């Protein structure tokens, strides 16, 4: 079904129009070239005859015919001497059709005698040539019609072939929902469509990750809030079973306030998720990534010093220009550094370093803590490591920020000493190009 909004229809129409114009112009050029060549050949023939007659026959006067029975029989030429025709001063060719016999003639007026002001009138019957050109014209028109029909057919096949992959991608995407997200098979796509397929697969992967973490987030929120509420309810019910001393009531209230504060802290972290989603629409800017980290490291050093720890930096190269969403980048680096400070023992060292790698740059935060359990997904919501306090949403927020930027993060244990390495890889081409 063709539609004016269809890409296939637009492509079909443009191919048909462009090809038809090209064929029509080519046919016109060919027809004109053949016609001009044949008529020029006849004109050259008549000129040669005129020059020959002028050179060999000097005694003819106006109104006389030159006996040229041989030319009449062989070349359909008749020659006559006549007075200078009106509006003719030099060699002139005239083509006309005689209404009496419906034949076509070409006439050459050639100066003959300057003193008598006479001209040679050489007339050639070109009816056969005229008929030949008429047949050629009809053949060209008929051929163009057939060619145009073939062009429409071929354009339809070509447009169908070119849009088939887009149509298939559209059908696959339209049939997907959150429960049926399948990556596109790139090997079935032409080379030109593979970057599009890779982008779609990356988007599908991000949607799957988002849905997975959102489900875990909702379940985690319900569980994290339900447990302290149940504890508060039980404590209050036990307190009200019998008369208690004022100190016991005060203790129960203090425990309730402590639980409420913990719940408020968890709700604040959940709200950060909403704020970070709006940060994902922050316009990216071009900036010197190394200089940005140098400025931030000064603040991190104050945080570490406050807990009797220190931060050392090792930035390579000296500068690195990148297109970055600063707020999202700050979410990630700040979370890495805060976790490193949290798990590193007093008088320990946290290392913040960068290094260029193939396809981008790596930012690493290295701590001297106990390390991590690499068998669990630390980036899932409400996942906690070690015995330190926290809600368990920091790394989840960092992962969401990295996904929004088109970057990658991971955490591994150190091999040469206790501790962990949190890594952010920023590719040369991020998912946030300059608008």
Description:
The structure is a single chain. With 435 residues, the chain is α+β, with helices and mostly antiparallel strands. The protein folds into 3 domains: 7-149, no CATH class; 177-279; 281-427, Histidine kinase-like ATPase, C-terminal domain (Heat Shock Protein 90). The chain contains 8 helices and 12 strands. The protein has helices at 7-56, 69-75, 127-174, 194-241, 246-279, 289-306, 326-343, 394-405; strands at 65-66, 77-83, 92-98, 103-113, 118-125, 285-288, 310-315, 321-324, 349-357, 360-366, 408-413, 420-427. The strands form 3 sheets. A 5-stranded antiparallel beta sheet has the order 1-2-5-4-3. Helix 1 (7-56) runs antiparallel to helix 3 and helix 4 (194-241) runs antiparallel to helix 5. It is rod-shaped. The model is unreliable at 431-435 (pLDDT under 50).
